[in-house]
Amino acid sequence: MNVIRKSGKGVINRIRKPSVNKLTDRDLPFEVGRTSRQILRKLLVVCGKVGKENTELYKNKAREIGADFVSETESSWVSTHKTIKQNFEPDKHAGILLLGSNKQLPATPLTYQGVFGFTDWFLQDTTGDGTPDSPVGRVFGPPDTILSHFDPMIIDSDIAILFDSQPDRSTRHVESLVDLGFDVEILKRFKPEDAKLLGVTEFILQFSDGVFTSRIHGTPEKWVSHNSVILSAQQVSTIKFQGYPVVYSEACSTAQEGPLLKAFLKQCACYIGATLDTMNNTEPFENWMDCAFSDGWKYGFLDLLDTHDLIGQVKTQVDRGLHEHLDAKYKREIDNIRNGKSSELESSQAVSTVEWVLFGNPLRRTTVGPHADFTPGTIVVDT
After folding, report:
1. How far apart are CA 31 and CA 263, in angstroms?
2. Strand order in the sheet with 217-218
3. How far apart are alpha carbons 43 and 133 in whole angstroms?
């Protein structure tokens, strides 16, 4: 059962009905189920320095779902990368789940314009050729949070929520989601009465386009506009997600390991965001792979949702597509990070290519509705 009876593609702003506003835990009108063990057993779980007792707890959980488990006790991303390459078997594993924060299981450090960040982009390279090829997701927090991401309940509601501070400016984003088969609800900012609807949502997106003084910006604590809190960590903690939604945030720095990300992980959501500044393109591009800015990554992600089965595959292939189309001088910046010659990026193109991190289980199935069929077309200048 769905909230709306569809004919072909999704619809816009028609989800708010009494049947939704009165939803209760015992009256859930959507299909919810677990990922098959055949898929989960394709995980390679890499556990950082989380303590002996917790390591044993996570090892037992990996055994329960049939996944391979390895501990990483060194304190560098280079060591973690080496461990991954030694243990990842392409014919056996479909994704890598990292357990631990950046401190417990180091990611690759990055610096841009004096601001520190990190990325798991380089850990996706399991073949050693310098390009992403294998899905990587990361989970950190207390044991109950980490365990909830091993084998989460997955909802099939075909509902997408779009946070947009300027919803009347353009319909491009909404039409993209409708083409992907979603029923779309647009929110300018979170209100308490939105919690139940968000709880049964499959896909939550926050876009940062439009005039700089009016668009949504990010911090490790919240999504904000120039005069309003859009969504805070405290507000996320009031939402009971029923089915492991995929959350994408375009705003700057929201994937730093701050209160907002921690709240989404604790509430059992799969989160994709950037650890450094996100930049909009200042010229149009006919192909998203040529647009090494946040719009290129965003529309690439939407484009590939109806191409791949798993959310980690989508993320990795967007990273790979952008990297393959980069100018050689930007690739050299990235290679200098990989080779340990530098931790600093100088161009917005290099930053926009490698800063996106997936927090959650990379083997979560992709998020699309019925008859999904989306092609981005020209990436316009939207600032």
Report:
1. 25
2. 217-218, 222-224, 229-232
3. 15
